[in-house]
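hey so i finally got around to running both of the ones u sent me last week. sorry it took forever, my laptop kept dying halfway thru and i had to restart like 3 times lol. anyway pasting them below in the order u listed, first the sequence line then the C-alpha cell line for each. didnt double check formatting much so if smth looks off just lmk and ill redo it

first one:
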Amino acid sequence: MINQIKVNLANRSYPIIITDDNFEALAKKLSQLKLGTDAVIITNSRIRRLYAEELRKALNSLKISAHIFNVPDSEKSKSISEYVKIISKISSIDTKKRLFLIALGGGVVGDLTGFMAATYKRGIPYIQIPTTLLAQVDSAIGGKTALDLPSGKNLVGAFCQPKLVYSNINLIKSLPPRQIRCGLAEVVKYGIIVDTKLFRYIEKNYKKILGLDNSCLGYIIKASSLIKAKIVENDERETSGLRTILNFGHTIGHALETAAGYSKLNHGEAISIGMVCSAEIAHLMGVLPREELLRIIKLLNTLKLPQEAKKGDLKAVLNAFLRDKKFINGRVRMVLPSRIGHVFVTENIPYNLIKKVIKKRMAKT
C-alpha cells in the first residue's frame, strides 16, 4: 500500500508518502530529491534500536553516508541547550559535505530537527520520518518548527518546510497504547474542525483502529494528512486565519503541558482536555448544542483519552495560558466549535468563563 499526497507550496512543495512497505519507497524518493551526500539522523535511543540501521542501509544503497545523533525521548529535548548541543555536533562533522537532516521520531524530534534545519547555515534540507501516529497525522506536516522555553511551549520557532514526509504505518506498530491514543486526539481534532465523515469513521471503527488494523490506520492517516496539507497550502504561515483552526484544543492544552513541566501529560492528552474545555466554553456561550458536546466527550471517553487534568496547579495553568502566543492585542484568540465539522475563531470570550471551565476540568482528583 502506497499513497502519495502533495503539499503544493510552489518551490517549497513536497510529497507525503503513506505506506506499509519497508524503506524501499523512501530510497526511491530520496534518489529523485538529490538532497545531498551526507545525512544526519536525529532520533532517540528507542527508535535508534528499532529502525536506524534499516534506514542507514537504505541511505547507503544510495551512496549517502549517515551520522546518527540521539536526543532524550521527552518534550525537554525541545530546549535551547539540546539545540546547541546537537548543532555543535553537526558543525563538527560538516567538512566539505552536502548535509541534510532526517527527523526519525515523533513530534519532539521533528520540531527540534526542523528548527535546526531552518537555522543552521540559514537553512539546509531536511525530511520527516515520523514514528508516532501523532506526528504522522499532524506535526510532521506543515513546516512549523519550534523550541520550548520554561515560560511556554513553542515560543522560539520558524517555518521550514521539509522536502519529504515519509509516514510508514509499520513504524507505529511498536508504540504503547497510550501513544496511539495520543495520536488519535489529533485525528479527532480534524473531525471536529472540518470532517464529519472522519469523526463518524472513528466512532464506527475505533476498535479496529486501537487494534492497529492497517486499513483503518491508512484511512485516518491519509484523511488527516489531506486535511492538514490543504490547510497549509492555503495559509502556510497562518496569515489569513485559516490555519488557526488547527489550534483547536491547543491554547488550553499547551497551558496544561507548560504548567505540568512537559512531564505529566502527553501532548495528545493535553489536547484532549483542551478540546473538551473549548467545546464546553462554546456550549456555555450558546454556540454548540449540548448533544454535539456530549458526542465529543463520548468519543474521547471511548478512546480512553482524558477530559480532566488531575491534581493540576490552576494558577500555573492560568499563568501559562495568559502567556500564550495566541494572545492578540491583549485578548486570547481561541478556536471554538459550533458543530462537529465546523469551528470558528474568536477573541470575544470572557476570561472568567475560560477560568471557570479550566477550573472545573481540574477540580476532580
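and the second one:
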Amino acid sequence: MKDIGSIAKNGSAAAMAIHQCDICIVGNGAVGKSAALGLAQAGFRVVLLGAPDPASTAASVSAVAWDARVYALNYVAHNLLSTLKVWDALNAGRVTAVEGMVVKGGVDSAAGQLSFHAYSAHVDALAWIVEDSNLNLALDTALKFAPNLRLLSGRAKALQADAAASTLQLESGDTIRAYLIIGADGAQSWVRSQCEIEIDYRSYYQRGVVANFSCERLHHGIAYQWFTENDGVVALLPLPEQRLSLVWSAPDALAQELLDEPLSQLAARLSLLTADTLGQLQPLQPELVQAFPLSLLRPHTLVAPRVALIGDAAHVVHPLAGHGMNLGFSDVAALIKVLSERGAHRDCGDAGVLARYARMRKEEILLMQMTTDGLERLFSKDFGPLRSLLNLGLNFLDKTPVIKRQLIAHAMGRAFDKE
C-alpha cells in the first residue's frame, strides 16, 4: 500500500478520494483514540474515522465545572496511557488517587463490609479517578502530534473484506482501504453489525445516575459502595479535595425519580448513607445530573475477517466494579502487542493474528462479565436469608488477607498478584 494520503480519482482534487492505510479505527471515544495513538506510535499507518475537532473538545472542558462522567482507571490503563505519553498530559489537579475502598452489603450498621487499602498491595493507589473530558482532551492533544496518523470526520455506510484488505465506503463517497478495521464504535457498534456478529444481550432495567457533590468531611481518597436491598448499587468515588462523584445503578423507576427531583434532594438521600463518615453532601455548582442505561452485552466473537472489536463494541458490563473502561484499555494493550509481534510474513489483518488477540482477551472479559453479572443478580434479590449469607461472606473475605490480596490484584489489573 501507499503511504497514508488521499488519492483523487481521475486526477481531480475535488473528486472522491481513496484513503490507503494499514489500520482504520472506527470510533472517536477514549478507547478508539488510544488505539489509534498506540498503533501509530508502533509504526502502523492509521486512519481514525469519526475524530472530533480537537478545538471543539478543548473548548468544552470548563476550568470550573466537574464532569459528571468519570472513570476509575487501574494500573493497566495507567501503564498504557503512560506509554502513550498521555498520562502526564492530564490535568493532574483533577485526578484523584483511590487509596482505599469500602464495600457494604447494605445500608444499615449490621451489613457486611469488605475493605481494601493501597498499603495492603504495597502501592500508592488502587486506581485513579479521571474525568471523561480530562482524558479525552489529553488524547486529542496527543493525536495532533502522532506520526503515521490521519484523522477523518465522517460516517461509514458499507464494509467489505476480501483476501487482500478491507474497504470502508463513506457517506461522503470517499473510500478507506486498510488491512484491518477496528470497531471502537460503542455498544451499538455499526462495525459489529456489518460483520453480522451475533450478541447476547440482557437489560438490567437500571440506569446509571451520575452527579457530583461536595462532602462535609475529608474522604481521604476512599471510594464507597453500597449494595442496597431495593434501590440498586450506590458508589461514591473521591474527587480532588472534598468532592465526590456519584454512580448510582438505580432501577428504572427510581432513576427517573432521581433525575426529576432537585439535586439537593438527591444529596439529602445520599447524606443518609454518608452521615457517619463523610457528613452532609451538597451538589457541586453548576448542578449537573445525567443517566445512561445499564445492560450486559456479549458478542459471540471479537473478530471477523480483517476486523477486530475493542471497548464497548466488544463487551458491555455492569458498572458496579467500575471496570468497563479498563477492559477497553486492556483490549488496546493486547491488540498493540499482538500486532507488533505478528511477524514480517503476516499483515495486521491476518486471521491467525486476530485469533491470537481474541484468545488473549477471552478469559479476562468472561471473568469480568461473570463477576459483575453474578454480583448484580445476587444482591438484587430481596430475600432476607440470602442477603444475610452474602453479608457473612463479605465479613469473611474481609478477615482473609490472602483472598483479599488476590481480589486487590485483580481489581488493579493483575499487575501486583505477586510480592
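quick thing i noticed on the 2nd:
The two ends are 47 Å apart (CA to CA).
anyway thats it, ttyl
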